[in-house]
Amino acid sequence: MFIAHLPAGYLLTRGIVRKRETIWRPALAVGLIFSLAPDLDLFYFYLVDGRRTPHHDYWTHAPLFWLAAAALTVLALSLAGKRQYLIFVGIAFANVLLHLFLDSIAADIRWLYPFSDIRFNLVEIPARYQPWYLNFILHWTFAAEMAICVAAVWAWGSEKV
Ligand SMILES: [Zn+2]
Asked: Rounded to the nearest 5°, which phi and psi values hold at 52?
């Protein structure tokens, strides 16, 4: 997925927390950050790894990593008596799972890693065009991305302040 992670994160977070709730602004910030968080590995991919490993193979695209991080954060917040912040862990984790689900539509995600290397994706994108990204932009799945973007813009515009 190229362009719809952020708008999808907006829609998901908006579905979890209403704008009139006092936690709306921090919830939205957490939701948007974690809707993109798995793709922070692109910095490593381009700047350190020299594009040798597909970035979907890094631990940042492993659901069990995020599950463990969320569980540890829940434990730490609970032990510290800060249970009022648990909603933000839920928002972050939900947005990461949405990111990985959306990636799974047209890219390989190892949902069971490190227990299995089986890759899951909904559709295969044939490599017909150069440069490589045209294969994704000219595929029907990109229409789904555009629909998510339009829905997010519509939702944003329909909100009452
Ligand atoms: Zn990703």
From this structure: -80, -35
d(CA 112, CA 26): 31
Between the CA of 133 and the centroid of ligand 1 the distance, in Å, is 14
Residue 145 near residue 109, CB atoms below 8 Å:
no
In this structure, are residues 36 and 94 in contact, taking their beta carbons and an 8 Å threshold? Answer: no
What's the gap in Å between 143 CA and the centre of ligand 1? 18
Measured distance CA(104)–CA(49) in Å, rounded: 23
- CA–CA distances in Å: residue 117 to residues 25, 33, 49, 76: 38, 27, 20, 30
Whether 57 has a pLDDT exceeding 80, the answer reads: yes
State CA 109 to chain mean position distance.
12
3-state secondary structure of 150: helix
Determine contact, residues 6/29, Cβ cutoff 8 Å: no
CA separation for the pair 29, 24 (Å, rounded): 9
Residue 39: predicted pLDDT: 96
What is the model's pLDDT at position 161? Answer: 53
pLDDT value of residue 88: 98
Q: 43 CA to middle of ligand 1, Å?
A: 12
pLDDT score of 79: 98
